[in-house]
Specification:
With 145 residues, this protein is mainly alpha-helical. The longest helix has 28 residues.
């Protein structure tokens, strides 16, 4: 990926376009897989059971985690890993997320961009004013190694 993707203040929109592509492609990968399973199985509970099986197959877990787009950019991966290390399965607010990522990369402006990107990639479950890392993704990332 180009440096513009890393630089949220870049004057060109290359980064925004590239990020939009990553978000759309990543969401499509995970949504398409879920929708395909729902069409094939016809039962939402069975789809959830199948998705839970990701946790027993390292290759599928890795594909799922990488399909989210979190690992499409080293800064996104670093931000996600910093949040996982700090919060694990606990809830937190977005400002706390930015603080944790900023401490990791030593750049608050870029940390805001990273957290916004992770939010766009839908890696957070929302709980009123707080978020937490999406559980299935978090477990698949752990299996990814």
């Amino acid at each position: 990926m180009s440096r513009e993707l890393h630089n949220p203040s870049a004057s060109s929109c290359t980064g925004a376009v590239a990020l939009t592509f990553v978000v759309i492609a990543s969401t499509a990968v995970n949504c398409e897989g879920s929708h395909r399973l729902h069409r094939e199985l016809g039962d939402p509970d069975e789809v959830l059971r199948h998705m839970a099986c990701l946790l027993t197959d390292g290759a599928e877990a890795r594909d799922f985690a990488e399909g989210t787009g979190v690992f499409a950019d080293p800064l996104l991966a670093t931000g996600y890993q910093a949040l996982d290390a700090e919060f694990k399965d606990s809830s937190f607010d977005i400002d706390s997320a930015v603080t944790v990522v900023a401490m990791q990369i030593e750049d608050e402006h870029e940390a805001q961009w990273i957290v916004a990107c992770l939010d766009a990639l839908q890696v957070f479950d929302r709980e009123d004013t707080h978020v937490r890392l999406e559980s299935l993704l978090r477990q698949c990332v752990a299996l990814r190694g």
